[in-house]
Write a structure and sequence with these properties.
The protein is α/β, with parallel strands linked by helices and 351 residues long. It has a domain of 245 residues: 3-Layer(aba) Sandwich (Rossmann fold), CATH 3.40.50.300. The chain has an 8-stranded mixed sheet with strand order 3-4-2-5-1-6-7-8, with helices on both faces. A hairpin with a 6-residue loop joins strand 3 and strand 4. Helix 6 packs across helix 11 and helix 8 crosses helix 10. It is globular, with a radius of gyration of 25 Å.
């Protein structure tokens, strides 16, 4: 059985991590060897699963057989990538280079690409029946899908090729003979080794292109084959991010067909008949009716927003109800999605 991939994406704060954990627990209970990975350093996945800590390598979830979880370590992932795609000398130089550290650790696209690399490694290990990926929130989840192409553009782009030349081995030899002495002279005038360090960094970065380009293409293929689910709420910011997501991926293969609206208020909150009881004092009835009227308006607004969104992008809508407390056990996570047939159909069948 090949590894199925379920990508959970959307803006920050909409409940992606909790939903990812809930689906992973449910898959494991169906007999699937399941791994859920997240890039969120805020411990949300560990808290939801009721475990102490997570690292870059999958940790078995003791309360749920067949389930493991991991949290992306961006620095460790980039170190592994550099050692994989560069010769030892270049790799050590890059990993010590402050320009490279800034690129790998601070840019959202670099974090998203590292998450894609980790996803691909787990898929190709064939260790799991299902991999659930809780994507980085940068760009409303869009960066996770565009990062492989962006990395190819950055490292193999026209500007970098112009600065470093088409052939790195030949260009590096030419650099040592001609450009490096001139840069050293310029740096002496400027009072520091800035220009020479930048030149070395650019050529070292360019040397990663062939390996990263092949890997990025593989990641894009995995994403095309994956099942993607967008999570949103009916609030303005998550909705705006979700709209941008669908509009920018309109023609992309593997475009999600399902959107989950999380934290939805109960439809029953529009019913005020319970407030007609003569046992309630008039002032209590009036205050309660006003309060419930406000909530009823919010329920109707959420309904209208969801229907407009689904009609515009031709999507399957799935509601996950609002809960007073976030689930912090595998049983509570399983209960969160237990009644959602439209959501659970995305899980593969155990063989």
């Amino acid at each position: 059985m090949s590894t199925g991939v379920l990508v959970i994406t959307g803006a920050g704060g909409v409940g992606k991590t909790t939903l990812s954990a809930a689906l992973a627990v449910t898959a494991a209970r169906r007999g699937l060897r399941t791994c859920v990975i997240t890039v969120d350093p805020a411990r949300r996945l560990a808290d939801a699963l009721g475990i102490d800590s997570l690292g870059n390598h999958p940790t078995e979830v003791g309360e749920q057989p067949g389930l493991a979880a991991a949290m992306l370590d961006v620095t460790a992932s980039w170190e592994a990538m550099v050692h994989r795609h560069a010769d030892p000398e270049t790799a050590e130089r890059l990993l010590a280079d402050p320009f490279f550290r800034a690129l790998a650790d601070r840019f959202p696209a670099a974090q998203a690409y590292a998450a894609g690399e980790q996803m691909a490694e787990h898929i190709e290990s064939h260790r799991w029946d299902l991999l659930v990926v809780d994507t980085p929130p940068a760009g409303g989840g869009l960066d996770f899908y565009t990062a492989p192409g962006r990395m190819k553009e950055v490292i193999g782009g026209r500007l970098l090729r112009w600065l470093t030349g088409a052939s790195i081995p030949g260009r590096r030899a030419l650099y040592k003979v001609t450009a490096r002495p001139a840069l050293k002279l310029a740096d002496t005038v400027l009072g520091g080794p800035l220009l020479e360090e930048i030149a070395v960094f650019l050529m070292d970065l360019r040397s990663l292109y062939d390996g990263l380009s092949r890997r990025a293409s593989a990641i894009e293929l995995h994403l095309q084959r994956a099942t993607s689910i967008v999570v949103a709420t009916a609030e303005p910011t998550p909705l705006r991010e979700a709209r941008r997501f669908f509009e920018e991926l309109e023609a992309t293969a593997g475009r999600p067909e399902t959107v989950v609206f999380n934290k939805q208020l109960p439809a029953g909150w529009t019913d005020t008949t319970s407030l007609r009881s003569p046992d309630l004092a008039q002032d209590v009835r009036l205050a309660a009716r006003e309060n419930l009227s406000n909530w009823a308006s919010e329920v109707r607004r959420q309904h209208d927003v969801k229907q407009e969104f689904a009609a515009r992008y031709k999507l399957n809508l799935v509601d996950v109800p609002w809960a007073e407390d976030a689930p912090t056990s595998v049983d509570a996570l399983a209960d969160l999605v237990a009644g959602s047939v439209d959501l659970l159909r995305h899980l593969p069948t155990a063989t």
